[in-house]
Amino acid sequence: MERRSDHFCFLIGKHFNILISVRYFLLAFFIVHAQLTSPYQSHFMNVFHYGTDQLTIGKIIAIANGSLKAVLDEPALKKINASQRHVQQIVADNRTVYGINTGFGILSNKSISPEDTRTLQHKILQSHSVGVGDPIPAEIAKLMMISKVHSLAQGYSGVQPETLQRICWHIENDILPVVPEKGSVGASGDLAPLAHLFLPLIGLGECYYKGVRTNTAIILKKENKNPIQLGPKEGLALINGTQFILSYAVKGIQRMHNCLEAADIIGAMSLEALTGTKAPFDERLHALRPFQGNILVANRLRELLHDSAIMQSHVDCGRVQDPYSLRCMPQVHGASRNAWLHLKDLTETELNSVTDNPILLGANDTISGGNFHGQPLALPLDYACFAAAEIGNISDRRCYLLLEGNWGLPLLLMKDVGLNSGFMIPQYTTAALVTENKTLCFPASADSIPTSLGQEDHVSMGSISGRKLNQVLDNLEYILAIELMTACQAIEFRRPLKSSAILEFAHDYVRQFVGFASEDRIFAKDINDIKAILSNFSFVSKVNSFAQTTGANLQDTTERFQIL
What we know:
Elements: H1 2-37, H2 41-45, E1 47-49, H3 57-65, E2 69-71, H4 74-93, H5 117-127, E3 132-135, H6 138-152, H7 161-172, E4 176-177, E5 180-182, H8 191-198, E6 206-209, E7 212-215, H9 216-222, H10 234-239, H11 243-273, H12 283-287, H13 292-305, H14 309-313, H15 324-327, H16 329-351, E8 359-362, E9 365-367, H17 375-403, H18 424-439, H19 462-491, H20 501-511, H21 523-535, H22 538-550
Parallel strand pairs: 1-2
Antiparallel strand pairs: 3-5, 4-6, 6-7, 8-9
Helix pairs in contact: 3-6, 3-11, 6-7, 6-11, 11-13, 11-16, 11-17, 11-19, 13-16, 16-17, 17-18, 17-19, 18-19, 19-21, 20-22
C-alpha cells in the first residue's frame, strides 16, 4: 500500500511538472507573439519597419551592414497598395497628371495614351541612365536603395509592393547595382545615378554579384527571377529623389564623426609631446562662450589629459601661451563639430522625407512640387566640407610644431639628422593634402546650370557637394594619420614620463602597427598602416572602449553629437 501511494505521488508530481512546463511554454509563446505584433517590435526584436519607423544615421548604417533587419510590414503595405490604387484610378479616369500619363520635364505637356503608360516608365529608366565616371562604392549604392525604399514605403508615390520587395531582395542579398559617380545636378532628383540604380529591376544594367561585376540578365536567370513590369508613375518615382546626395551625406557624417573623435585624441597627444598646457580647456572659460561643439571638445581634452605625469612635470615652466593649433583646439575642432551637427540634423530629416514628384495624397489630390530639389542638403554638405578641411589644416600645423626642435624635442624628431631627414618629409605630404582640400572647398551649391531646356532652371549640384566632402575626408584621414605617427614618435622623447592612461593606451595601440623610428625608412608604409586603423574606425573605437574602463566621459551626455 505504501509503495502504491509512493507511485501515485510520483505520477502526480510528474504530471504536475509537465503541466508547469506547458504553462511556461504557453506563456513564452504569448510573450513572443505579443512582441511580434506589437508596435514596439523594433525595440524588442531589433527590426526596422520601412515607411513607419524613424530612420537615423545609425539605423541606416546598421541596416546596410546587416546588424539591423529591415522589413516591409502590413501597415506599410496597406499604405503602398492604397497609393497604387490612386494611380490606377487616375489612369482609368484618363485624367492628366504629370508623370503618370504625361512626358517629363520640358515634355510635361505631351500626353501619353493609357496603353503606353507602362512603356513610358520603362523608357525613363533607359533614357536617364547617362552617368559617367567610376562606379560609386557598393556601400553607397546600398544606402541609396535603403533610403529609397523607406521614402516610397510611406505611401505617397504610387509604386507596386512587388517593386519595393524586389529592391529589398537586392539589399538583403547584397546584389548591388553598378552606378556611375557623375551625372547628377542634384535637382529633379538624382536622375542619372538613380536610373542606373534601378535598371536591374527591369533586367538591364549590371550588379555586383558574389563580388563580381555581372550583367543583370545573367543574375536574374541564375536566381530564377523575372524583370519587374513597372506600372504607371513607378519609373518616375524611382528616379525622382535625393538618395544619391543623401547616401553620400550619411557616409560623410559617419566618416567625419570618426575624424573629429580622432582629431581630439591625436591633438591631445601632440599637446603632450610639446609639453603644452591644459589651462585653455578650463570649463569656466567655455561657459562664457557656450557653443556646444566647443564645450564638448574642451571636456574631451580635459578627460584625455587627466592625471598625466607629463602635464604635471611642467606646471611651473613659465611658458605663458601655446600656439593657436594647441590652445584653440576647442574653438576650431568645436566649430567643425557644430557644422557636423547641422549636417546630421538635416540629413536625418531628409532620411524620413518623401522626395519624389508628383506626390499622391489621393486619387483626386496630387501635387507636383519640388521635394526632389537637393538644396537643403547641398548647402550643409558644402559647410561640412569646409569644416572637415579645417581639421586637416590645424592638424598640419601641429605636425609642423612637432618638428621644430623646441621645448626639449630633437629637431625633426630624430637624434641623428643630416644623415637622416627624420620626420620632415611626411609634413610635406600633409601640406600637399591640406592645399588639395582647399581646392575642393569651392562650394558646388554656389553654382547652377539650367537643364531641361530651361524648365529646370535652378539646380543644387548637391551630388557634387556630397562627393567632395568624402574626397576631403579621404585626405583628412591621411593628414591625421601623419600627425598621429609624428605625435607617437615625439611622445617617446618624454620618457620615462608617462601621459594619461587613455593617451598611453592610444600610443600603445598605434605601436602594434608602427614602431619607433631611430633612422629613416619608407614612411609611406607607416602612414598607410596608421591610416587603415583610422579609416576602419578601430583606433577611435578602441580608445573610447578603454576610456570607459577608466571612468572617463568622452561622450556628449545629450547624445546630440553621437551617431545613434
